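Kindly go through one protein, given below as sequence and tokens. The question is how this chain folds according to its tokens.

***
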Amino acid sequence: MAVIKVIELVGQSKTSWEDAVKAAVKEASKTIRHISGVEVLNWTGRVDDDEIVKYRANVKIAFKVTSDD
């Protein structure tokens, strides 16, 4: 039986919310194997001088739990 674990992360980008999601998945993939899905929980951003300067995406990332056996 497969076990799936879900973690919550925040990705950031200077260009777009889509890139913020990609950044979260890319960073997670450095230490997590078998990523099977991503769910976007919400979008936020930082504004300076009436311009969005940082895009943030709160995401849940699902991955298969495996043993080292």
In short: The chain has one domain: 3-65. The two ends are 15 Å apart (CA to CA).
